[in-house]
Inverse folding.
């Protein structure tokens, strides 16, 4: 067995990034293995993008150890980037060039010959279902198409790791599903994916393993299922109230009915193993919320439990 | 250097969508300028019998406007396109996600800017020749001189542009730096006509050195030690500008 094959593709210990006094990433440790889909889940400002930029070798770490593909991103940045595919949070496509030209120009940055690029561009555009738009300009494409083009473009150098920073932020639900579908296809083909997201459904959909980040630190690590099992109950009863009826007064009354109660503005979450049973008990108590929802726990509940806050600002 | 050529290729590809308009501008504007100043105004100046250097005013003013064109194209190509590549198209960030480094981005873009300078100036020079205002075969050397003038402006301007958040500063640079240099650094009349303080300011500007260099070449009246001084001075601006651009780009893009 080759010892090198067991080395993680990304390895971080005590990784720190600060901008002046602001600590964006605060001593985090993680490893990403080959073939894994690894996620950074957290709200805006949790330090996910800063971590991603350090891995992408465009932001020197302020402290700690970081190895990408076994190399130091500061000393060997160009060598590392030659083997990465990057899907940035904000598109960096050239709007006035065609879909094909965007692929070719980007491939040229890697020094790949034109003949190879033409073949790869067509194959990759077919993969992201943009082959029919190959000679149209980028500007009139929809947000979802632009995202898929960015993904196709990031694969032009046949990267060892694909970095996706908020891959579906700003897309409508249908477009998101198309992007997820393509990322699933990549995953099944054995690609190593690193992604940041503040959508718990995206993390659940795509990640084999993830870290929950908050305020620059890693709050928890595991597979989506493990995290839910560890930090939440099987089911959740969500009680919604009209604004003039603050649920804070009710918290004490319903406290004994669930393992844990979280109070948010206008709603109460009761964490329990049997949602229907708990919901019945609440109604027996004479509590009449505007609506009652019984659902399974999600990563959103994990985040709420770990930080006391929701992932997406309400 | 081959890495910088990869970014140059991008600028070339991007230019293909606008080249028609810019070629038209670069032919029409010299014709207008030389027509109005050289022939229109020049007729009056020639009549008064006080033309500087004792040559036809058209032959006097044409190399000045040529040098000013190198300055303006160089500076303007280094303003909006640079800030745009950071703020709007984010083209620099696309480049940085690949094996390219800051220096390849800076050098590739500067190479493109000077290409724009030299091609505009080549057209200009041809128009001047057609007007019969190049008096010496040395005039052909005005083209490499324009290359140097362009770089002496594009490099420091790009270094500055990479520090900006908004493009409003560029209007100020145009109005309070480039236009005064265009008017007062020997383009239209000898700086010896300026009050002493202003004259020394003019001598300090790279534009005066560029104008004097181009004029000495097209008139065939080259004082070689002085010409060498101009070249060294312009090269110093170019090199210092490139060093500053490497610094400001790095600070802005690799946070």
């Amino acid at each position: 067995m080759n010892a090198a094959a067991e080395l993680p593709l990304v390895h971080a210990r005590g990784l720190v990034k600060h901008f002046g006094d602001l600590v964006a990433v605060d001593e985090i440790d993680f490893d990403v293995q080959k073939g894994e889909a690894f996620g950074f889940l957290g709200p805006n400002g949790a330090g996910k993008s800063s971590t991603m930029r350090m891995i992408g070798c465009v932001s020197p770490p302020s402290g700690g150890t970081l190895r990408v593909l076994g190399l130091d991103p500061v000393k060997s940045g160009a060598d590392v980037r030659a083997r990465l595919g990057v899907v940035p949070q904000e598109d960096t496509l050239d709007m006035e060039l065609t879909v094909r030209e965007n692929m070719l120009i980007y491939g040229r940055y890697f020094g790949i010959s034109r003949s190879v690029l033409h073949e790869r561009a067509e194959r990759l555009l077919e993969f992201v279902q943009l082959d029919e738009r190959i000679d149209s300009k980028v500007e009139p494409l929809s947000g979802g198409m632009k995202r898929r083009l960015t993904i196709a473009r990031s694969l032009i150098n046949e990267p060892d790791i694909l970095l996706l920073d908020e891959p579906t932020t700003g897309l409508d639900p249908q477009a998101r599903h198309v992007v997820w579908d393509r990322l699933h296809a990549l995953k099944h083909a054995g690609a190593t994916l690193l992604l940041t997201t503040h959508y718990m459904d995206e993390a659940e959909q795509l990640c084999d393993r993830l870290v929950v980040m908050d305020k620059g630190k890693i709050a928890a690590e595991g597979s989506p299922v493990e995290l839910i099992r560890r930090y939440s109950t099987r089911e959740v009863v969500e009680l919604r109230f009209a604004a003039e009826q603050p649920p804070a007064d009710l918290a004490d009354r319903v406290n004994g009915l669930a393992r844990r109660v979280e109070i948010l503005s206008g709603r109460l979450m009761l964490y329990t193993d049997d949602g229907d049973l708990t919901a019945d008990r609440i109604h027996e108590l004479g509590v009449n919320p505007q609506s009652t929802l019984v659902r399974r726990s999600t990563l959103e509940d994990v985040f709420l439990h770990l930080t006391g806050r929701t992932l997406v600002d309400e | 250097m081959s890495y910088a050529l990869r970014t140059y290729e991008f600028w070339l590809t991007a230019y293909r969508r606008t080249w028609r308009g810019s070629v038209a501008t670069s032919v029409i504007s010299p014709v207008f300028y030389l027509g109005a100043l050289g022939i229109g105004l020049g007729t009056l100046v020639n009549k008064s019998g006080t033309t500087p250097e004792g040559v036809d005013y058209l032959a006097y003013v044409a190399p000045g406007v040529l040098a000013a064109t190198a300055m303006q194209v160089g500076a303007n190509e280094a303003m909006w396109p640079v800030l745009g590549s950071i703020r709007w198209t984010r083209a620099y960030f696309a480049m940085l996600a690949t094996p390219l480094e800051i220096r390849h981005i800076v050098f590739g873009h500067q190479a493109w800017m000077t290409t724009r300078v030299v091609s505009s100036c080549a057209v200009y020079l041809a128009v001047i020749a057609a007007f019969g205002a190049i008096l010496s075969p040395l005039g052909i050397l005005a083209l490499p001189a324009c290359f140097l003038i362009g770089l002496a402006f594009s490099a420091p301007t790009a270094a500055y542009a990479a520090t900006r958040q908004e493009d409003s500063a560029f209007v100020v640079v145009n109005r309070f730096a480039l236009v005064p240099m265009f008017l007062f650094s020997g383009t239209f009349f000898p700086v010896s006509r300026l009050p002493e303080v202003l004259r020394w300011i003019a001598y300090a500007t790279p534009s005066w050195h560029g104008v004097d260099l181009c004029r000495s070449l097209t008139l065939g009246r080259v004082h070689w030690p002085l010409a060498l001084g101009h070249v060294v001075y312009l090269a110093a601006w170019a090199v210092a500008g490139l060093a500053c651009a490497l610094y400001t780009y790095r600070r802005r893009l690799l946070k």
